[in-house]
ABC transporter permease
Amino acid sequence: MRPKVWMPAGLWLVGWRYLARHRWQSLLMVLGIALGVAVMVAIDLANASASRAFELSTEAVVGRATHQIRGGPEGMDEEIYVRLRRAGLGIPLAPVVSETVFSETLGNRPLQLLGVDAFAEAPFRSYVSAGGALPVESLSTFFLQPRTVLLLGETAERYGLGVGDRFRVEVAGRQTEMVIAGLLDPPDALTRRALDGVLLADIATAQEVTGRLGRLDSIDLIVTEGQTAVLMQAAGMLPAGTRLGPVAERSQAVEQMTAAFQLNLSALSLLALVVGLFLIYNTMTFSVVQRRELFGTLRCLGTTRREVFWMVLSEGVTVGVLGAALGMLLGVWMGRQTVGMVTQTINDLYFATTVREVGVPAASLVKGGVVGVLATTAAALLPAWEAASVAPRLALSRSGLESKARRAVVWTALAGIGAMLLGVAAFQLPGNGILTGFGGLTAVLVGFALLAAISLVGLMRGAAPLLGRLSGFLGQMAPRNLVNALSRTSVAVAALMVAVAVTIGMTLMIDSFRHTVQVWLASTLMGDVYVSVPSTTGTTPMTALDPQVVETARSWPGVERMYVTRSTILDGEQGNVHVSAMDNPGIENERYYQALFVPRGQLWSAMQAGSVAVSEPLARRLGLMEAGAVLRLNTRQGWAAFPVAAVFYDYASSEGSLLMSRGVYQRYWADESVTALDLRLGAGVEADGWARELQSALGGQQRLLVRSNQTLRADVLAVFDRTFAITLALRLLATVVAFIGVLNTLLLLQFEKQREVGILRALGLSGGQLWKLVMLETGLMGMTAGLLAMPTGYALALVLVYVINQRSFGWTLQLDIRPEAFLTAFGWALLAALLAGILPAYRLGRMPAAEVIRYE
């Protein structure tokens, strides 16, 4: 229904006809907003798919369990389950053994080996209760034959496997042959998605394959609201070192773990949309200028200000709806390309997951569409108000808007300074919130954008005399034309400046991050060769080495010293904590410390006495930055307090970690496992060749990563580069939208200057001179955008390094300024502007002079 209350139907037709007549102008607006919406939808879909993948894998493991009992690094004794069963608690209980494994046969991706007791499963996981739809032969094979698993039928079909087929899986670096006893065929699609990466085994098989005989990872419980007393009774029966808690705790921990990463990605995805808004505003403003005679006539004929306002605004809404619709379709396609990069980053930094398909939740599409339409409407408000507010006599004047734009230059600049001060004030607010940080960043960016007009005027006035001497009257005309069309050129310059400034800011931040990581690696990796089992993520390996591997490496010729590390996850009062227990007494000299709470040279002694050193992200997350801080951990003897002796810089994980003496760790957790070796070789031993020899000698015992110091550094930096790969794509898309904005502005200016150019052509201006004039104008716009982008990009880099990164991930980066980042970005701004001038120059050159001079 057309809102006739707002405006007559005839005015709707006028607006529609204008959009239809100016097809290229309308198409560029739709394309600009579509790209912005598409990037936002794509990132939202990728984030949602990665999060949903974790939820599905969690659902496959925990089923309908409400609570879980979890053990320490070595799990828990299965006697705990027996004791709870015999206690007659009257609630469902089920033991679970779970391990991430790999199989080349099944795509060499992370898989979940899930060991369960089928006779206790009915209340928890319906797809294995009583065998589900499995035939009797499959059930008997599953229960009676060793090393058998159940596999989703669709997964088996994808890889050409069937019942009775054998395939190999890698568990903790060792190859094991498994047999498919049966194929699962759950009735609903959600369960099928959840089981896509699951190998279901009898609990005895899982214990044998993982080397955890007599041990469990967890015990699932279903506790209703009225059974609090039963829950308390079960908790009272548990030994020290175990913990009973809601299943939701783990999901919440993972959500918190990835929230900052996904929020940063979402914020960056809005960049293309923000740049697109400059395009919408610029085009709508020009459409108002183009039709000022029409608006003046309509006003003289009795059309009200409100009707003119709704007429122009409806055009913007129409463009927004079309652009949002196209953007949603494009976003689904882009999401399928993007999800791999997002998933890889999550795998590298947080946890192993596999996203086999991109879900298309309606919420992501609706959010993208609504934001696109609302943003376009907001961008069209000012032009609509401008059209409605001009008196009929002034509307018939050609220079009214430009005169007003030039008079407003100083006030716009003051507003920009005010926005920047507001952004700086936002950084000072207590709480260190990420959203507050992004709000301040946006205010700073808007502030610099509002300086585009005064910068353009100042630079053009300064450039005109020099260009006049170099290029004659064309050199004076080009800057004057840009100032005379300030209401459009300043917005195009601002859009291009924002895209280029963000490129500079992101490049400086990434370069600073990379430089900081390189310095950190140089201080942390002091060994010559490192040995570990391949990890399912890009972070610290936590799979135990075979004891024989440790002894072989210790006695291998060329080893001067060997330090061992046990990395694991412990239960803390405020959530899980990553721990590295080591026996290296020189640890104080192999880290950079933000704070040292013991006398220098006594850190190792303090750690041997029970103190710990915590990384900066962990210290910030748990509030351990002050002297006297204590961290409480759940040990095999119960809860124990560990004084914090130091806070060290660390960039391995945004979740943070702590360092502990291995002797203290063994005393509290009785765990002799080793997950990594740090080998110091004798003088003259070539590390790479020595590492290859050791790899060959140990390869038959366990699949290992034996890497020299240099190779390990390269691997860490490769993970780093993968992490930021997606930001390059987002920055390029924003630049493309800005390019469209500059192109659209030049096409609009070309339309407005037809008579002027026709007169110049009639007076003898050659085609080459016309090209020179257009290229001078576009070059000056690109130069202004590039110059203004330099201080803007530097300011953004400061905010990203010292505010956003610290609030999002908890680490401090060292700003690394490289001139090539500024020069490259300036070159891109100039090139984008010059390329955008080719089509307008070509079209102007083909216009017949006599036709464009004619008034009627």
Observations:
- The radius of gyration is 33 Å.
- The chain has four domains: 1-65+260-398, 68-246, 415-434+447-524+717-856, 534-703.
- The first helix runs from residue 9 to 21.
